[in-house]
Amino acid sequence: MILFESFTIKGLRLKNRITMAPLFLGYANPDGTPSPLLIDHYQEMASSGVAMVVVENIAVDVLGMGWPFMLRADDDRFIEGLSRVSKAIRGNGALAFAQINHTGRYAYGTERVAPSSVRTGEVVPRELTRDEIEGVIDSYAKAAKRIKEAGFDGVEIHGGTGYLLVQFLSPRTNHRTDEYGGDLANRMRFPLRVVEAVMDAVGQDFPVGYRFLADEMLPDGLQLEETRAYAGELVKRGVAYLSVMVGTYDSFYLPEYKEMEREQGYMVKFAHEVKAAVPATPVIAAGRIQTPEFASNIIEKGEADLIGLARVLFADPLWPKKARGEIKEPIVACEPTCSLCMQRIMKGKPAYCSQWSKERREVFSKKIGEER
Ligand SMILES: Cc1cc2nc3c(=O)[nH]c(=O)nc-3n(C[C@H](O)[C@H](O)[C@H](O)COP(=O)(O)O)c2cc1C
């Protein structure tokens, strides 16, 4: 099966085509360090047999935190904890990448910053000044350097889910009249400067991947025509891979998104479009990739090079071993009509999966009971 053939990203060998896509579960300590629960979780994800684990979004700046229980990389004091996370993954046979993020207008605090003052729920974020923009770019660069110092194999810049980089790219949320707003060339300026600063900070040999938003799935939002052009610019700067997703918190809850999201492989056609725009760059496809046959087909057809499993792997950490036939039991599927993991993190509670066995659920309850 092609799914179990190796692949190379910037000189790094992936033992197969299966990666864990970033999945924030609210397991970090309130001070931004990893809890024993979080370390256990990443150990298990790495030992599942995936080639590479991308650790959930990690804050580059306190103002950019989306939740209180989020890992942080905004200070050198977080390097030690992050190195325990990289060890938990690398020590269990997978490459370790870490995703860095600033959530901008989707931050959880009431003081929020964004390209423009576009309301989100009850809060109107404050427009970043040009000096502050320089500071945020520097925060990304410093956070990426800390990820490298913490022993990760690579860093992933979060350019998805409608967070800060998308807020600059999108005409919906960027109404600026300076050099960071207006036409696509100006709206791309901030995210491209972030990419360049991160690459300068970590050096040419350290892989920098990018979580790529192909479409906001909103009538007045970013669409493929612009994002494909943006993909070309990212590739010119040397990103190691593009991990494709669609939608933002402004579209996730729309009935049409919810319906689309129930389908197996609901984001694959977007990954394929991006792959066609930048054929020489590795592309990761995610989005309810439930069966190994379906996953292999994506790669065989050249729609993407790698598969990203997020909730799918959380629901069944034995997915890769079952796919390979090492364990002869059916894969436990992520339930398409369930959103328990998302609901839990939105309530500030550590996530679990409705499909877990009673025993697994009991072990989890015991662990969180002990910690929080
Ligand atoms: C609870 C939850 C947390 C997520 N956290 C992240 C994250 O930290 N970074 C990111 O890029 N995507 C995140 N995602 C998106 C996933 O990486 C993935 O693209 C999406 O869930 C589709 O794949 P799946 O069907 O295998 O879950 C998250 C999704 C969910 C449901």
Short summary:
With 372 residues, the chain is an alpha/beta fold. It is built from 14 helices and 12 strands. The protein has helices spanning 36-47, 79-90, 130-149, 164-169, 184-187, 189-202, 224-236, 255-260, 268-277, 292-300, 311-315, 319-324, 340-346, 358-371, and strands at 7-9, 12-14, 18-20, 52-59, 95-101, 113-114, 126-127, 154-159, 208-215, 242-246, 283-286, 306-309.
Shape: globular
Largest sheet: 8 strands, parallel, barrel
How many helices does DSSP assign?
14
Share of β-strand residues = 5-15%
Which ions, cofactors or small ligands are bound in this entry? flavin mononucleotide
Number of strands: 12
| Spatial ordering of strands, largest sheet | 3-4-5-8-9-10-11-12
Order of helices and strands: EEEHEHEEEHEHHHEHEHHEHEHHHH
The name of the CATH superfamily reads Aldolase class I
Q: Give the class from helix and strand content and strand pairing.
A: alpha/beta
Keywords:
globular; binds flavin mononucleotide; 372 residues; 8-stranded parallel barrel; TIM Barrel; alpha/beta
Question: What would your notes on this structure say?
Answer:
- The chain has helices at 36-47, 79-90, 130-149, 164-169, 184-187, 189-202, 224-236, 255-260, 268-277, 292-300, 311-315, 319-324, 340-346, 358-371; strands at residues 7-9, 12-14, 18-20, 52-59, 95-101, 113-114, 126-127, 154-159, 208-215, 242-246, 283-286, 306-309.
- It has 372 residues and is an alpha/beta fold.
- It has one domain: TIM Barrel, CATH 3.20.20.
- Strands 3-4-5-8-9-10-11-12 form an eight-stranded parallel barrel, surrounded by seven helices. A two-stranded antiparallel sheet has the order 1-2.
- Helix 3 runs parallel beside helix 6 (189-202).
- The longest helix has 20 residues, at 130-149.
- The termini are far apart.
